[in-house]
Amino acid sequence: MARAATTSDVFNAIAEPQRRQILVLLRAGDRPVTELAQELGMTQPRASKHLRVLREVGLVRDRKAGKQRLYGLDARGLRPVHEWTGGFERFWNETFDRLDAYVQDLKQARQEGSN
């Protein structure tokens, strides 16, 4: 599969690990770019570049607060990811059902062996 040349959708935007780290940090609340950059050990311009991509796909919002610009998580942008991963729910439920049946069989065999 060819890799998309753009970061214009949420899947491409969150494919970059440092962007995912930014989203995790923003779960705790709005923060200025300087704090994000410091916590992630990256330069401010690099953090700003990641924030711009996240803002363009609707995962991050920003607002002015005094002399600072604060960035915050907009989790509504994760809806396409949530809907896509939800398609695998049936697979995981069936896998857990098979695992549960296996464990029950083991317990039954152990009880029959001890009697």
Architecture overview:
It comes from Sphaerisporangium siamense. Keywords: DNA-binding. This is DNA-binding transcriptional ArsR family regulator. One of its GO terms (molecular function) is DNA binding. Pfam families: HTH_5 (PF01022). The chain has two domains: 10-77, Arc Repressor Mutant, subunit A, CATH 1.10.10; 78-113, no CATH class. The longest helix is centred in the last third of the chain and has 26 residues, at 89-114. It has 115 residues and is of the alpha+beta class. The protein has helices at 10-14, 17-26, 33-40, 44-56, 79-86, 89-114, and strands at residues 31-32, 60-65, 68-73. The chain starts with 9 loop residues before the first helix and ends with a helix. A hairpin with a 2-residue loop joins strand 2 (60-65) and strand 3. The chain is built from six helices and three strands, in the order ααβααββαα. The chain has a three-stranded antiparallel β-sheet with strand order 1-3-2.
User: Kindly state the mean pLDDT as a whole number?
Assistant: 91
Count of distinct structural domains: 2
Structural class designation:
alpha+beta
Number of beta-strand segments: 3
Unreliable segments of 5+ consecutive residues: 1-5
Rg, rounded, reads 22 Å
Count of individual helical segments: 6
CATH class of the largest domain reads Mainly Alpha
Strand line-up of the largest beta sheet: 1-3-2
Give the full name of the CATH homologous superfamily of the largest domain: Winged helix-like DNA-binding domain superfamily/Winged helix DNA-binding domain
> H/E series, N to C?
HHEHHEEHH
Proportion of β residues? 5-15%
Helix content: 55-70%
Keywords: DNA-binding
Protein name: DNA-binding transcriptional ArsR family regulator
Domain HTH arsR-type: 1-93
GO molecular function: DNA binding; DNA-binding transcription factor activity
